[in-house]
Amino acid sequence: MRKFSAVLMCLMLFGSLLAACGGGNNKEAQNNGGNVAATGNNGGGNAEPAAGEADDITQRKVTIKIHYPLPDETTLRQQEDDKIARFQAKYPNVTIVKDDWQYSVNEIGVKMASNEAPTFYNTWATEAQFLVERGWVADITELWNNWEYKDEINPVLQNQFIVDGKVYGITQNGYVTSTVVNKKLLDDKGIAAPAFDWTWDDMYNVAKGVADPKKGISGIAPMGKGNEAGWNWTNFLFEAGGDIETNENGKVTAVFNSEAGVKALDFYKKLRWEANAIPQDWALGWGDAVSSFQQGRTAMVIAGAFDVIQAALNEGGMKPEDVIAYPMPAAEKGGKHYGVLGGNYLVINPNATKDEQEMAFRYITFDYFTDDALKSVEDTINARKAEGKYYVPTPLEYFSEDSDYAGKVKAIYDKYDNVYKYDPQLFSLLEGKPEAQFGTQDYYATMSNVVQESFSKKGTDSKKQLDVAAKYVQENFFDKIQPQ
């Protein structure tokens, strides 16, 4: 879900070095004497290279318009300014123009048509197919293949921007939705923690066994209001084998009113009406559900693991051994542990010149796999320790778990007793499935109404509910999408 991706982005490991969120209309240039040139279609003011400069991009004048944080994001702006200074110290031939335009599906077409889009911009995991089909993102396969660290990037995240074997974006960070379990509540009830390769039945039994409505303790706290209610439920749709939509020749069709959708909605109703396992006041937003977990009022919550664990340990005073991140449960034994995959990516403007694209690529990856980033991690861990708090890594980093760099990060983690450790079984079972490519938030909002009706009215017909919802989404949103 995009709103949670945005929250996560600000909390990600190495965020202080990788921050590149934002983009707008700030035309200020760095060290350019106010002579700002436009970017794209050879309009960057980059002079034709002299004969001796032809093979060395560092000897040619290049201007790039970078993705820059918003005005109220003062800390991120300071961090980005530091990166700009370090980048220009290495590449004094490059002029940097700041642009704080925020990506919008409703604005990107106009930006491209008017040649006003930045040289690179931030977008979401949902947008890959959409941007590629419309030609609004550059094919950077050659730059990618020549990059020394390409084989160390996290494939789970990076693959979202590889389309038909070609690379169109670079991962910044991401998450796969997980279930976080309060083991202490299970122990108090004498319930054994389930295996990591668990199922819906396991989740049901744990939720039912732990729930104690008289004491205000629920077995599970699915989100029940706001778009996050639809986001939470979509994990179960995926696990049941369903999809949100199809896209054939530009025609987007709602398909979540399927047999899988009915199965997923029926499971939600079992948790509510048979197990009596969800909170009595079930209208919980994202913050409400996370707060319920950190206060010890629910045994399970569905979200990005980092956010829940961070709040539980550093705000709720819980112990690391009592907070366990699980993959989402499979619908049946042997099934997929699908969780909604979200993330943030930087993509390059296809209208930019070859030199601009290459320098944009170098800027994007400038702080990846660096010793400076490692030092930042260790400094942050020590700062947390001084405060009596835990350092919680995110489960999905931009680098691959088996990369050399991951080994260096792990070596730092192993030095400290205030670093939260995920169970290795989690990573072998996590399987992310991307959000819908079109109308994501509209779909979530519609499904949130369905979830609320299911929690408030006993005996509703799941198929009829989903048919009504699919018809609404189709007519009001998907039918208005113009084919390329």
UniProtKB/TrEMBL annotation:
Which key words tag this protein in UniProt? Answer: Signal
Question: Does the entry feature the keyword Acyltransferase, yes or no?
Answer: no
A Pfam family name for this chain?
SBP_bac_1
According to the UniProt record, where is the region Disordered?
33-54
Look up the signal peptide feature and give its range. Answer: 1-19
Matching PANTHER family: ARABINOSE-BINDING PROTEIN-RELATED, SUGAR-BINDING LIPOPROTEIN
The name on file for this protein is ABC transporter substrate-binding protein
- Organism this protein belongs to: Paenibacillus rhizolycopersici
